[in-house]
TrEMBL record:
The keyword 4Fe-4S does not apply. The chain crosses the membrane at residues 6-25, 37-56, 68-88, 100-122, 142-165, 177-196, 208-226. It comes from Kineosporia mesophila. It comes from the Bacteria. PROSITE patterns: PAS. SMART domains: PP2C_SIG. Gene3D superfamilies: PAS domain, PPM-type phosphatase domain. Keywords: Hydrolase, Membrane, Transmembrane, Transmembrane helix. The keyword Hydrolase applies. Residues 237-278 form the PAS domain. This is PAS domain-containing protein. Residues 367-376 have a biased composition (Basic and acidic residues).
Length: 706
């Protein structure tokens, strides 16, 4: 066999080799730029095979057709190379306009070359040269414009790649330089051959040089990972971490992932490498936006939803662009809701699939669902995971950004536990609030001669339902009664004792018992055979209904271990305690309680309070009775001696009704005594809050005589 025959066989073998490389690249088509690379390899294969058949043809007519078909591969190379550069430099797919512009030249060229009448414009068979015994045509008048156009496109693509690589750190430049050199080699070889600078009779070296380029691109891209940051020896600690670790290049592509990262994302590691991370985990798009290339943000922490991919054990079983998470948690039972994934409008599709199902009960994909990928519909498979994301820039020694390190932590269980705790806390808060509201009246009745105001504030430490309570209710003989108490303990047990004490007092008051007898009977009610602690302190008052000509209101007080109320006289503004201390209720079989009669005149104020007021503490200092008396004395009186005047009473008869017999709704402006009682209650509460932010339960009951 002659050496020329060996060269032809080499070209044919090279074409078969290109086909094998194209098959290998197609098997790994999840990598960025893999599809344009397949087109490039197939184009060079067509070029090599047709060139070999052209050189081996004995008939000039047959050689002309093989030479024409060779141009299918030649004109397909520039668009394929540009598509590869677009994908590999992070620009994504070419626009429709760019694609149309790049296809004009191949269409025009193949039309000219396949039509015999116009073929001489490209191939001039009137001037041929002999190569391996075959007559190779010369260049037609349009050949060199075509060649220059192809060279410009090829060199332009290399320039874009080189310009992009000069803006990033040195670890990429050395690797990228190999890519640029490999892509420039066949271009320069073809220029030298077309210019006639090789020895006469030499074959076109371009297909052989493209073979070198293909090996560099394919082997380096998929085996050596030319733009990969993976070190030769990865630390075993990273591989065995429970947290997922992803390494992204500056374009946002996954160049490395540990086993935990693949498990959290539910995406095979081999299928993940080389893909844009937003195609694998769309939820990370918002995180990437916060940390763009060149930004001053070194680290970003966020939390995203990741939807698992059941049944995708190998990359071959996966539908590219079909898997991964969504930005929002979808409602699988409701109508379709538009979502957006990597710039494409998507929707949660209604699934009608059988055979394969995942543990969540949702069906898995089958061959019927491949059309969904083309239509942009997104299958949502399995329940989502809550994943905490920490994204940090990796910089070189001079501070330039060369990669992103992404740490993923599955916090689904933690968030579920926190949600359950919050729900439990909210339920307890609602229960506490319901109990608290049930232990005191929604509103206080206002007597014709006496106005009431009350305040109840739970502990600032948030210890649940407190034991403070108050009430105003009718008593026997047409009189009225009020009670303010403080039950020991907190929570449900305190609420039970509070409710029992309040309604026991109401029942005893209705029987017409004296205040001291009411407290003694309450003490007996609190005495139970069980070991539960049930005791309280109480101030109980019986209000006698004054006659029509009586200007004084008589209040009979009885204290069961409770702090004595404060009385402020309107005539001179003096403040002093009233009542005689007694025994706390519920501790002893019998108690020592007393009755004290207090006459209230118009403008007088009686303040009953729980020990949460005076025992409010800052360090070793308490709020105390003295400070409380000063606050009460400082509240403006602002009323005259004949208050309210007969004229005012005549104009506002609604305030003279009996709340226990007349149930008509009260209207009209606020009574001055009501305003006074509210002012006292608000002033005391504000003073306690200002003095001690950390305090116990506080309850106030204010009586203002009219």
């Amino acid at each position: 066999m002659s050496w020329s025959a060996w060269l032809v066989c080499a070209l044919v073998a090279g074409g078969v080799g290109y086909l094998s490389l194209a098959g290998f690249v197609w098997a790994n088509r999840q990598g960025i730029g893999s599809r344009p690379l397949v087109v490039m390899l197939l184009a060079v294969k067509v070029w090599s095979i047709c060139y070999a058949l052209e050189l081996s043809s004995t008939s000039p007519e047959v050689a002309q057709w093989w030479s024409a078909l060779k141009y299918f591969g030649v004109v397909a190379l520039p668009p394929a190379l540009w598509s590869f550069v677009f994908a590999y430099t992070g620009r994504g797919r070419m626009t429709r306009r760019s694609t149309i512009l790049l296809t004009i030249h191949p269409v025009v060229m193949m039309t000219l070359i396949l039509v015999p009448a116009t073929r001489p414009l490209i191939q001039d068979y009137s001037h041929t040269s002999q190569v391996l015994g075959a007559q190779v045509p010369g260049a037609g008048p349009l050949f060199w414009p075509h060649a220059v156009y192809v060279y410009v496109l090829m060199l332009g693509a290399d320039f874009v790649l080189m310009a992009r690589l000069t803006k990033i750190a040195p670890p990429y430049r050395r690797q990228g330089a190999l890519l640029i050199a490999a892509s420039l080699l066949p271009c320069f070889g073809n220029v030298l051959w077309n210019a006639g600078l090789f020895r006469a009779g030499m074959i076109d070296p371009t297909p052989f040089l493209f073979g070198i380029t293909a090996v560099v691109l394919v082997w380096g891209f998929f085996r050596l990972r030319l733009l990969d940051l993976t070190p030769v020896a990865r630390g075993i600690v990273i591989e065995q971490m429970n947290d997922g670790v992803l390494v992204l290049d500056v374009y946002g592509r996954v160049v490395d992932a540990n086993a935990a990262g693949a498990s959290i994302i539910s995406f095979p590691r081999r299928a993940m490498i080389g893909r844009y991370v937003v195609d694998v985990v769309p939820g990370l798009a918002t995180v990437l936006e916060k940390q763009e290339v060149g930004s001053a943000v070194d680290a970003v922490e966020d939390e995203v939803l990741i939807y698992p991919v059941p049944g995708a054990d190998t990359a071959d079983e996966m539908l590219p662009g079909f898997w991964g998470g969504l930005f929002a948690r979808p409602d699988l039972t409701g109508p379709e809701k538009p979502l957006r994934l990597t710039g494409r409008p998507l929707s949660v599709a209604a699934l009608e699939i059988d055979h394969r199902t995942d543990p969540s009960g949702l069906p898995g994909p089958t061959g019927k669902d491949r059309p969904r990928e083309r239509t942009g519909e997104q299958l949502v498979l399995g329940p989502p995971r809550d994943v905490a994301v920490s994204m940090t820039w990796v910089t070189d020694p001079v501070g330039r950004q060369i990669a992103r390190l992404v740490v993923l932590r599955d916090v689904t269980e933690r968030n579920r536990t926190e949600r359950q705790l919050r729900e439990l806390l909210n339920e307890q808060t609602r229960l506490s609030e319901t109990l608290r509201q049930s232990l005191r009246p929604a509103s206080l009745p206002q007597l014709p001669a006496l106005r009431f105001a009350a305040r109840s504030v739970p502990s600032a430490r948030g210890e649940g339902v407190g034991g403070d309570f108050y009430d105003v209710h009718p008593a026997g003989g047409g009189e009225s009664a009020f009670v303010l108490g403080d039950v020991s303990g907190k929570g449900v047990h305190a609420a039970v004792v509070t409710s029992m004490a309040r309604y026991t007092v109401r029942t005893l008051s209705a029987q017409g018992w004296t205040p001291s007898e009411v407290l003694r009977q309450l003490n007996r009610a609190l005495q139970t055979p069980d070991d539960l602690e049930r005791f309280c302190t109480v101030v109980y008052g019986l209000v006698s209904d004054p006659g029509p000509d009586e200007r004084r209101i008589r209040v009979t007080l009885s204290l069961g271990g409770h702090p004595p109320p404060l009385l402020r006289r309107h005539r001179d503004g003096s403040v002093h305690t009233v009542g005689r201390p007694g025994t706390a209720l519920g501790l002893l079989p019998s108690v020592d309680v007393h009755e004290v009669v207090v006459d209230l005149e118009a403008g007088d104020v009686l303040l009953a309070y729980t020990d949460g007021v005076t025992e409010a503490r800052v360090g070793d200092e308490q709020f105390g009775e003295k400070r409380l008396a000063e606050v009460l004395a400082a509240v403006p009186r602002g009323i005259g001696p004949a208050w309210p005047s007969p004229a005012w009473r005549l104009e506002h008869p609604e305030y003279e009704r009996n709340p226990w017999t007349d149930q008509s709704e009260q209207s009209g402006p606020g009574h001055p005594a009501t305003q006074l009682a509210d002012a006292v209650a608000d002033s005391v509460l504000a003073a306690v809050r200002s003095f001690a932010p950390e305090r116990d339960d506080v309850a106030l009951l204010v009586l203002a005589a009219t």
